Here is the input.
Amino acid sequence: MAWDFETDPEFQTKLDWIEAFMREEVEPLSHLGMAVHGSLGREKFIRPLQQKVKDQGLWACHLGPELGGQGFGQVKLALMNEKLGRNGLAPTVFGCQAPDSGNAEIIAHYGTEAQKTRWLWPLLNGDIRSAFSMSEPTGGSDPLTFKTRAVLDGDEWVINGEKWFSTNARYSKVLVLYAVTDPDAKDPYRRTSIFLVPTDTPGVEIIRNVAVGGGGEIGGGNEGYVRYTDVRLPYDALLGERGAAFIIAQVRLGGGRVHHAMRTVGACKNALDLMCRRAVSRTTRDGRLADLQMVQEQIADSWIQLEMFRLLVLRTAWLIDKHKDYQKVRKDIAAIKVAMPKVYHDIATKAAHLHGALGVSNEMPFMHMVTSSLVMGIADGPTEVHKVTVAKQVLKDYRPDNDLFPGYHIPRLREEAEKRYAKELGELREAYAARGGRRDAAKAEAV
Here is the structure.
């Protein structure tokens, strides 16, 4: 029986190294702001840290050895990502940043050798960035409402349409684009295909860069609003089979949702740590915040929420390792996707509140956390859609009771029990009657 809550010593050593590396090198670097993210800054600050990660054998661990990764299972990735989730710079340092990690995964699975040479290896090496260009201004991420069209003209595709929230489009070299190629296909989920579009292709226009959250100037964000106008691509720009976008998306999004949840565990733990540090440090006229019962309640509720969520994430990771098939774990993946924004929002909000005015200022990370929690309820499918998935998967195991009263109606269950044990009940009546006492007579009558 394998049911264990311990980490093997060899991998624990790796986790201990990650913990120290995050604390001593990644987290201090993240406070330098944009100085880290320019091309010169990346060479000066990021590249040396990435090399240290590679030297430890911890680079791009979500990928197999044939792609330069470690091929770690999902449970190990979950334990790693709990550490990385504390800081937004960490995934880049460890070669698992979104959307590049998911885009690289589907190119590895479905790309031709030429596509892998041009896009996959530079992505894995961190030499280029990519964007996931799927959602649209009209219908969001619902693939059945997509308007962007790709029409075959000779041996070229001609693409027209608009995409919304194409993350990192402004920094990307390639756009992973979803476009309708077969609008009349009988199966609505076979109407859309995926294309690898060089960002500098004529006709590709970034209308503006949308920022997440309040504040900042319009146009200063990282979420691209992209227009495709008569964009011409060779036929072999198609990724995978024609009409297979939905199938490919499930491979990408299933893993992406799990990894988001893994990192959110780390973000929640960070918020809880800061909340507790504030509680034991801040003093009011009635004593420390930590000594006030309402504060204790908030800390207890946050710890319980986090532990339940963490265990659900780890169990889901274990199921993926067991089945090697995201489709067999759809319910569990959807469940952690539903739980993720609520747990994150609840803990981050409590942490902000406990810090008072400082907590809602831009001198603390909590408002960014709260905004991120709202993003988690939208990214990779809204919470409501995933709740429907959970419910449908749960209900598959049940069959209807078609009688007037349900099968679990207590009078019916009693009648069935009396029939099943009729012999024993008869013997019991005779035994009580033979004893002849008043109380025994009453018991015999009751039986």
